[in-house]
Amino acid sequence: MKAIILIGGFGTRLRPLTCTRPKALFPIVNKPLLQWTLEKLAQGGVTEVILAVNKLTKFHIKQQRLSKCGLKIKFSLDPPKTPLGTAGPIKKAEKIIGHDEPFLVLNGDLITEISYSEILQSHAEGKAVATIALHEVEDPSRYGVAELADGNRIKRFIEKPPKGTEPSKLINAGVYVLSPKIFEYIPTDKAVSMEREVFPRLAEEKKLYGHQVCGLWIDIGKPEDYLQTNKMLLESCADKNPKSSKFECKEPVALGKGVSIGEKSVIGPCTVLGKNVTVGRNVQIRDSVVFEDAKIGDDTVVVGALIGEAAYVGKKARISEGCIVADHAKVKDGAKLHEKVSVCPAKEI
Ligand code: GTP
Question: Is the pTM of the predicted complex or chain greater than 0.85?
Answer without folding.
Answer: yes
